[in-house]
Amino acid sequence: MSGGAGGSERPEERQREPPPGKSLPGPGPRQNQVLKALLQGAEPPVGAGLGGLAAGSAPLISFSEALQYFQSVELGQGRVGLGPGPCPPGGTLSKQRLPGPRPGLASLLRCLFGPPRLQPQLQGEQELALALAQCALDDSQKVHMRILQTVYKRLTCSRLGCPRYGAHWEELGFQGVDPGTDLRGTGMLGLMQILFFVMDSQLLPLAREIFRLSQQESQNFPFCIMSVNITRMVLQALREERLSRECNRRQQVLAVLNQLYAAAFLRLYCLWRGQHRTLADSSSLLKELELATKKKPKQLLKSLEAFLKQSPTAEALQELSSRAGPGGDIDFVGICEPQVELEGAARLI
User: Fold this and answer.
1) How far apart, in whole angstroms, are the C-alpha atoms of residue 31 and residue 254?
2) pTM for the complete prediction?
C-alpha cells in the first residue's frame, strides 16, 4: 500500500494491504442487512478522495491531545437541534444547551422526584460533549484525520495508515466506505469515544478482544456500528439528565460519558460471547443496553471498575477468556449483573 495520498485518484483504484500477519474478513450479506437495519436509511457516500494527511504519515493521537484541540475551539451560538455539520474553518463549535427549568407544577415535581440538575461548573463540559456530537467528520481537519487513522491502526495492530475511503472501513464494522456517513447521528463524539477506547492502556485489551469477537464467523457483528449506537445511548442519557448525579459526584462529564460507553460495551461483550448472541439478537440487545445506560448507569460503571481490577492487561484478559466453560461462557463474577426489564420501544439509529 502506498503511503502517499493520490490527489485525483479514486479510492476504489487504490490498493490496500491487510495488517501484517492478519486478514480481516469482509462483511457478508447478513451483516450488511443488520448494518442497514441499525442505521435506518444511511446513504452511501458521494464523491471520493483521500483528504487530510497522507495515509501512511498520520501520527497516532492520544485522547487527551484530541480533546485539547476541541477544547481550544471557540464555542459559539447556533445550529441547536440540527444534525451534525462541518466544524467551520477556524473551528467554531455550536454551543448546545438543555431546555431550561419548566414553570409551575412540572418544575416542582421534577425538583422533588426527578434527577438532579448538573452543577453549574460542569455545564461547559456538557456543552462541549453536545457540540462534539454536532460536529461532522471533516477531511480538511488534520486532527479529525489523525483520530480516524489512530482508530484503524490500534484496532488492526497495523503500523500502516489507510486511505480515507475504502472497504477497509467495512472490515472495521462501518456500513460503507466512508465512516463519516455512520457518524452523522453522533458526530465527532462517536469517533472520540472509539479513540478513548483504543488509546486507554487498561481498556485497549478489551477493545481488541471485542473487535476480535466481532470478526468471528459464527458471532460476527459490526464493531463500529455497535460503537456508534452505544455513543448515541450515553449521549441521550446525558441529554435526559440521567447522568447528572454521577457527573456531579465525580465532577466530570466527558469522563463519565467515556466510562459509561466502555461499561456498556463490556456488557455487550459479556452477553454476546457468554450467551452466544448473533446478529439476529442485536436489536433486542441494543434496547437492553439503552435502558441500562438510562436506568442503571451507576451499576454499569461499577461493573467496569470491577472488570478493570480483575484484568487490567492483555495477559490477564487472555487468562480470563481461557476460563471459559465448554459452552463458551465466562465467569465474570457479577460483571453482567445489571438487569433492566424491557418496557416500550427503544429508538435505534
Assistant:
1) 31
2) 0.73
